[in-house]
Amino acid sequence: MAADLVQHLIPLQPEQGVPEWWSDLYHKSLDASIFLGPEWLRSWIDVYGADFTGHWVRWQERDRTVGGCLLLKRTVWWRFIPLPTVFVNVAAETTPLSPWSEYNQALFVEGYEVRVAEALAQLIGTMAWTRFELWGYESNNFSQRLLEKLPTTTVQSREERAPYVDLQAFGGKEYEATISSKTRSQIRRCRRMYEEQDGPVTVEFAQSATEALEFLGQLANFHNAIWRSRDALASFEVKEFREFHERVVERLWPTQGVDLLRVRAQQKVIGYLLNFKRAGKVYCYQSGFVQEEDPHLKPGLLTHACAIAEYSRQGLREYDLLGGDSRYKRSLTKSYRTLMWSTCYRNSMYARALWAGRRLKARLKPEADANDDPESGAASSVSESGLESSSPQ
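Above: the chain's sequence. Below: its structure in token form.
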């Protein structure tokens, strides 16, 4: 039973960083994603933590730490209605162009996922909130039990595919031999055109933290140029967004947990990628590509194909393109996982009145804007960031 676990609550104090026990538990949990690592959490808290209150939660059995999470709290305003909201870890809304986290859940020792989920649900039930957010998670024993046990009246969920490439499933073949003939033809034609115009296509990895930050700066410039050309706000034009990424790169560099790579044809740069790594898995997180007028030149597709081939040669096991079912992701991959974003409303008079008002409005004004929704901002912040981060063109 969950009651068998001893629970400790430590107030979040951003200046103190991530507790040591979290780092120990994370390094024992090889299936935990890079988004739960101490470097990621510390960077996020440094940049965005002042907007939240919260607690580090630690569960022990006897003298052994068996689980933990970070609970954040913030009042989100929908029109003039305050919605006290609880978030699990740093998969939390800040601004529409804030970083996003995926593969989100509590940390736990193998075999403790259900007990930790029950203990977490029990704790959340004692807190004051109207909305509870569990974002970017996979449906598994932990998430299912947590959502089952919460005192909620309404749960809204959406899902996204997270396509990935199994780098160990090529059977001795080159990567391009394993994809469709159409995609293979596009990649080869693109490579041939660049080589005829500019020279051999090569992949370069940043060799120092200083060079990695230089690559990140160039990635940001390419990334911003594409979105400005679409008359849209570019993520890396937001000071906090850029600062967060710089902090993550600096903190992960000594652990070999981050790659900044560049694909170019002689002096012509084709694209940059910011990838994170853990336990043989590559998380493709941000990108920036040159803009081309010729539709046969597909710099994003070529950059990803070159990176996948290189990681396969290095012996890594997976190349994860993360959430978002884009056309280029379907072209490059054969497999996918499903990630979920859920918003839970408490079984309370306040939440029931809110939903009654929304249903009445829907009947009286069925053509109302779909964005007139308490969680529409949350959904868009995740989806827009995901699409923006990895657009291949």
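The first helix runs from residue 20 to 28.
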